[in-house]
Specification:
Length: 333
C-alpha cells in the first residue's frame, strides 16, 4: 500500500495537497491551544467549551481522513498489483487507442508529438504552458480549498466531497478495466503491445521535444524504482481531468471572474493529460464525466452543516473577522 501511495504522491507532485491537510490539522490544534490559554489565564468561561468542540472535531476529522486514505491506499494497491492480467491490459490499451481513433480520426497521444503532425511546432512552443499546467494541479487544488474555506464554506465542503467521491467512483472502473498509459503501453511498452499500421507509423515518427522528454524521463525513473508486480493501470478515467474540472467549477461558483483564468487552465490540462502520454483522449472524457457525476451528487448536499465541518469553518471565519478588524484598525490609524 505504501508503495502505491508514494508512487502517486511523487508522480502527481501532490506534496502541497498533503501539506494542506497536515497544516489544517495543525491549525485546529493551535486554535484549541489558544482557547485553553484564554480559559486558564484570562478566565474566559466560554473558551473551554470552544476548545472541547475544536478538539472533538479535530480528532474525528483526522480519524476520517486516515481511514479514507487507508482504504483508498488498499484499493489502489489491489488494483495496481492485479494478478495475471498482462494479456487483458494489452487488449484494453489497444481498445482505448482505437476509441481515440474513432473519435478523433487519429491517435492523439502519439500524433501530438509526431514529426508528421503539422501542428507539432505549435505544441513544442506551448510545451512550457502545458507542463506547468499539468504539474501544478496539486498546488492549485490546495490553494482552491484554502480560498473556498475562507470565502464560501458550503463550496469548500462540496469540493472536498467531489475530490473524494470522484476517486471512489473511479476505483471500480480501474479494477474492472485496467489499462496502461500510452507511455507504458506503447512508447516505452511494458509487455508486447498490439500495434496497427498507423500506430507503428506514428511511433516511428514520435519525437518529443526536450521539455517533454525530460518530463517522461522523470516518470520512467519513478516506475523503475517499483516492484515488477506493480502496474500503474489507473488510466481510465483520468483523475487529473476530474479534479481540475472540480477546481474550475467550484472556483467559478465562488467568484465568477475566476473563470477567465480557470477556463484556459482547464483546457491546458485536458490537452496536457494526453500530451504527456499519461492518458488516452477517451480517458479525459471519462474523467470529465466522473467529475460531472460527483458534482451532481454533491450539489444539493449541505455538507457544511455537519457539526465537525461547521466547527472548522467557524474557527476559520472567526480568524478572518479578527484579521479584517486588525487591518481596518491599522488602516484607520
Amino acid at each position: 500500500m505504501l508503495q502505491s501511495l508514494l508512487y502517486y504522491l511523487q508522480f502527481g507532485q501532490a506534496h502541497f495537497l498533503l501539506i494542506f491537510f497536515v497544516v489544517l490539522i495543525e491549525y485546529l490544534c493551535w486554535k484549541m491551544g489558544t482557547q485553553l490559554v484564554e480559559f486558564y489565564f484570562f478566565k474566559d468561561s466560554s473558551a473551554r467549551a470552544k476548545a472541547r468542540r475544536v478538539l472533538a472535531a479535530t480528532l474525528r476529522l483526522t480519524a476520517l481522513l486516515l481511514i479514507l486514505f487507508f482504504l483508498i491506499g488498499i484499493g489502489i494497491e489491489t488494483i495496481n498489483t492485479y494478478p495475471d492480467t498482462r494479456a487483458d491490459i494489452t487488449t484494453h490499451n489497444h481498445t482505448l487507442m482505437e476509441a481515440d481513433r474513432m473519435l478523433f480520426g487519429t491517435y492523439p497521444p502519439l500524433w501530438l508529438q509526431a514529426t508528421t503532425n503539422p501542428w507539432k511546432p505549435w505544441f513544442d512552443t506551448t510545451a512550457p504552458l502545458l507542463l506547468v499546467a499539468y504539474n501544478s494541479l496539486s498546488v492549485v487544488l490546495g490553494l482552491m480549498l484554502i480560498f473556498l474555506a475562507v470565502v464560501n464554506g458550503r463550496l469548500f465542503a462540496q469540493m472536498f466531497a467531489v475530490f473524494i467521491l470522484s476517486l471512489l467512483l473511479s476505483m471500480p472502473l480501474w479494477y474492472l478495466y485496467p489499462a496502461l498509459s500510452p507511455l507504458e503501453g506503447y512508447v516505452h511498452p511494458v509487455g508486447t503491445p498490439i500495434i496497427s499500421g498507423e500506430v507503428a507509423t506514428l511511433l516511428a515518427h514520435y519525437q518529443p521535444n526536450p521539455r517533454l522528454d525530460k518530463f517522461l524521463e522523470r516518470i520512467l525513473a519513478l516506475r523503475a524504482q517499483d516492484d515488477e508486480r506493480f502496474l500503474a493501470v489507473t488510466t481510465i478515467p483520468s483523475m487529473h481531468v476530474a479534479w481540475v474540472t472540480a477546481v474550475v467549477y467550484h472556483g467559478w461558483r465562488a467568484w465568477r471572474p475566476l473563470l477567465a483564468i480557470g477556463l484556459p487552465y482547464l483546457l491546458l490540462n485536458y490537452v496536457a493529460t494526453v500530451y504527456t502520454l499519461q492518458h488516452y483522449a477517451v480517458d479525459s472524457l471519462a474523467g470529465l464525466l466522473i467529475a460531472l457525476v460527483a458534482i451532481g451528487l454533491t450539489a444539493q448536499l449541505r455538507l457544511d452543516r455537519l457539526p465537525d465541518v461547521r466547527v472548522v469553518l467557524d474557527v476559520i471565519h472567526d480568524d478572518i473577522v479578527q484579521l479584517r478588524r486588525w487591518f481596518s484598525g491599522k488602516l484607520h490609524y
